[in-house]
Design goal:
Strand content: 15-25%
CATH architecture: Alpha-Beta Complex
Number of domains: 1
Structural class: alpha/beta
Largest sheet: 9 strands, mixed
Number of strands: 11
Strand order of the largest sheet: 1-7-10-9-8-6-11-5-3
Radius of gyration: 19 Å
């Protein structure tokens, strides 16, 4: 089903159309109302919305904290106009969309997913492991300040933790927060708003009867840091593209507006509301749709949200600061 999704994206209409001038709607409209949905869909903009979210927005986001360790990247000479993990030859990777549940663990969830992708790609598909978001969530914040990982964290925590301590697999430490209903759809799941996350606890041991010890189950990273923080827009975009096409998905944090929660399809650019709390996702490719450059990203609010869990966001304009805070690293198989 995932391959079908990417084929649809690759075969989308490539006609060159002029980008329309950005319009912002009346801020008095309820961001989760049918009125807002109808208002956005009536605009001649690059994306569409549905009534996609209930009032439990805040539990799906996370406050992010950042530092600025920069990865040195030599920009590739031939960057394609379009790239996904499929058409780049990386066919054996973790394309599944997961659900972070009631915990605001986006920073841990999407870093662990990107690291898992990179291990698979770097090993030529031989190592198909899923690193533990639970291990990152519970144990990475201790490197900096005491924190409840469900209330926020940082990609810096996660990538430095991979580099310095290593991360075990989900087989050793499975994610403890079950999927919940983030959307307004009538799903057979408990509503996130009705749940309260248990505070993560760092336990350096695997679940009972797991075949490996905690230390032996670890995978390590190296050369972890930020991409293109101090570059201008064109060079920064090219460095992010080079990193993705060379080593795999990256983690990016951005500050979506209120209208993002109702995203359904197309290339997102805000037209309504205010900036919300920062959120982290995986960027897995890029392309052009109706003349508009976009990043293709994977979210962690289950497949019922957005375009089967994915979304596109305008590329090259640092939309919602998504090109400003991008993180990556490479697997270290020597440890």
């Amino acid at each position: 089903m995932i391959k079908v999704l990417f084929l649809i994206l690759l075969s989308s209409n490539l006609a060159e159309l002029k980008a329309v001038e950005r319009v912002f709607l009346d801020p008095g409209i309820d961001p989760l109302s049918d009125e807002m949905v109808n208002a956005i869909n009536s605009l001649n903009t690059t994306w569409k919305v549905i009534r996609n979210f209930n009032t439990s927005i805040i539990c799906c986001l996370c406050q992010m904290f950042h530092s600025y360790l920069t990865i040195l990247i030599k920009i590739a000479e031939d960057i394609p106009e379009r790239l996904t993990l499929v058409n780049n030859g990386h066919t054996v990777i973790h394309l599944n969309i997961r659900d972070q549940g009631v915990c605001g663990s986006c920073w841990a969830f999407n870093s662990a997913a990107a690291m898992s992708d990179r291990i698979c790609i770097a090993s030529g598909g031989e190592l198909q492991v899923e690193l533990s978001a639970e291990d990152v969530l519970a144990c990475a914040p201790r490197m900096f300040v005491p924190a409840n990982g469900c209330e926020g964290g940082s990609a810096v925590f996660a990538w430095n933790y991979w580099n310095d301590y290593g991360i075990v697999t989900s087989g050793c430490k499975p994610y403890k927060y079950a999927p919940c209903n983030h959307t307004a759809a009538g799903l057979a799941l408990p509503h996130c708003a009705n749940l309260k996350p248990e505070e993560p606890k760092c336990e350096e041991k695997c679940q009972p009867k797991y075949s490996e010890s905690y230390e032996n189950d670890k995978y390590y990273g190296k050369k972890c840091g930020h991409i293109g923080k101090y570059d201008n827009g064109v060079h920064r975009v090219a460095k992010i593209q080079t990193e993705i096409m060379t080593n795999g998905p990256v983690e990016a944090s951005f500050i979506p507006y209120s209208d993002f929660f109702s995203y359904s399809e197309g290339v997102y650019e805000p037209v309504y509301g205010k900036e919300e709390i920062e959120h982290a996702v995986r960027i897995i490719g890029w392309g052009v749709e109706n003349g508009v450059d976009y990043w293709l990203a994977a979210n962690s609010w289950n497949t019922y949200w957005g375009d089967q869990g994915y979304f596109k966001i305008r590329r090259g304009t640092d939309e919602c600061n998504i090109e400003d805070k991008v993180y990556a690293g490479t697997p270290d198989f020597s440890r």
